[in-house]
Amino acid sequence: MHTYHSPLDLVRERSPERPVALVRPGAVALAARWFQKTFKGDVFYALKANPSPWVIETLAKNGVNAFDVASMPEIELVATHAPGARMAFMHPVKNRSAISAAYFDHGIRTFAFDTEDELAKILDATGAAKDLNLIVRLAVDTEGASYPLAGKFGVGPAEAPSLLLSARRATQDLMGVSFHVGSQCMRPTAYQAAMAQASRSLVRAGVFADVVDVGGGFPSVYPGMVPPSLGFYMDAIDRGFAEMMVHETTELWCEPGRALVAECSSVLTRVELRKGDALYLNDGSYGSLFDASHSRWPFPVKLVRDGEPSDAALKPFRFYGPTCDSLDHMPGPFWLPDDIGEGDYVEIGMMGAYGVAMTTRFNGYGDLDAAIVKDAPMASMYGLAPASIPTPRTETGTVVKLSRARGKKRRRR
Ligand SMILES: *Cc1c(COP(=O)(O)O)cnc(C)c1O
Q1: Residues 353 and 208 in one domain
Q2: Ligand 1 pocket, residue 230 CB under 6 Å
């Protein structure tokens, strides 16, 4: 990857025809070191947030050398780019041959599940292995989350005790619990509440957990969505852990995705046409702007223009992507100078999580180039950016309600 001082230098030198992922490896390194130092347990990076090889390599080099994976291709990516790294197969519904390959070919011992049937499948596919770390995925309240994940995965409080008991009996190694409070969790206390819920299920089952995995959900900062600083999340987890019925040797794990990578990448797009307040860009909802479209995620934007900087007033714009599908629409509003037009470039910030990871080749678009840039991300949870989006020092933060596109259920994470 070529290195440029800034996105503007890249535009001056290359006038890129295709969208470019602007990559800031230092931001990943800093986030990795912060989690490694501050979280009082093991940090597994949730690969789906951004599976780029350079991300895997940078994380591993900076102390986050454990990965939460969900499929064979993800396992192979980690095996290639962080050889020897620890992996946990945390998808609660797995294919039988993937479980076998994970166990026998990649040495993976940690598997999550939320039903007796999946537990039976894991035992069967590993030849009734006795050295498994079995993690029961619990359903918990996801009130504080901007992107709730409840519904698809997790065993509810009524069935949890018997599944915990089955897990305890099935392994001589570690038995644990995990949950996911929902992505971009705006409330640190959500973790404490989920841990209390997990503790009640463990007590009712009459078993001790060897692992308490608090999952992902740690936030980044976006316009209108400014979370409390991450230290408050660590404090809430410490309190929650102290209040749980666990033994001295119980391990604490977490699986951050977004918080480790949101800042590390932005996307440079070009305006191909302007129609009033609509800008037609060369990247869109089938490219890296899935969340800007389907979840109306409020990404920050910046005009990048070779020539005189604009002094026009800011105005709200909508974006259309390059494909012929009318769903390829990002409603925004995105605030940009009123004199923007064809040939201008727009940098869309804070795209490191669930941006590049979502691209398709639909309609012949979606291929991104990549380049390293040396300037700061548009916002930062780790003190990298000038305080353009202020981070409050309270435990509440600022929350904006995201409207959902056409009643579409939020499905992924
Ligand atoms: C997606 C996912 C994560 C990461 O979630 P973030 O909100 O990006 O931190 C962690 N664990 C599991 C099981 C996931 O599916």
Answers
A1: no
A2: no
